[in-house]
Design goal:
heterodimer, A: 185 residues, mainly alpha, Four Helix Bundle (Hemerythrin (Met), subunit A), 2 domains, 0% strand, globular, B: 98 residues, Helix Hairpins, 3 helices, elongated
Amino acid sequence: MTEVVFYIFAAAAVISAALCILQRSPIAAALWLVSTMFSLAAIYVLLNAQFIAAIQVLVYAGAVMVLFLFVIMLLNLGHAQSDIRGPSTVAATLVIVGLLGVELIALFTYSPRQLASELPQWPTFTDPATVFVAGKITQQATEARGVVGAVAAPLFQLYLIPFEITSILLLVAMVGAVVLAKRKV
Amino acid sequence: MLLGPALGLSAILFSLGVAGVLLRRNAIVLFMCIELMLNAVNLSFVALAQLHGAGGYVMVFFVMTVAAAEAAVGLAIIIGIFRHKQSVDLGNINLLRG
């Protein structure tokens, strides 16, 4: 049942992404990208990451895409002509993306069992549950403290310094965006 | 667990994002394709976090933060270029050409 739902949302995500890169109007592309992000949020729920799914809808589909739509509205680009590059670039793109896709889609056959058997310190022992203990610990933390608590504990303990640096990054981005977009006085 | 299918979907979405960056000349659509690639990477982080613990979820937070900062600064640059050139077509943006 979970797999059927996963493949339905995966197909929705791929079709929306393909339409996003092929739509002529930037607004249509942005709306198809929102559709991709909603499908990905549903897939995060299936992968037991409910909090990440909520953040995906709030931050990506909400804030970031509204920013894109505002800029499209400000620049008045709704009726642009097609901006897809010429046939030679299309051919080169197909070759590059084909090679990249073949390399990456080799990951499709991966399972926890295969990953466990390829780890060098356990050359013969291939029970995934004993090799990947961290996933089990996270699962137990989720059951004990809830979905948000299991994510918040490492964020504010182990990753506290990167988290604080992130706030400086956001401040720099905010100041930079204001300075760049401000009209010269 | 769905590890393999999630990684395969992530690969397809990343390839589509690369195709969009290479194909389109509209700077705003190009930024959307970069967001698509970041989303694909987030998906692989979430899929692998099932095995490797909550560090993957924390990394998704950082990727989202960087994506939001990059979108804000990038769109401000696009607005600046549009004021200068009256266009967001990448073919017209050649200020640095020697």
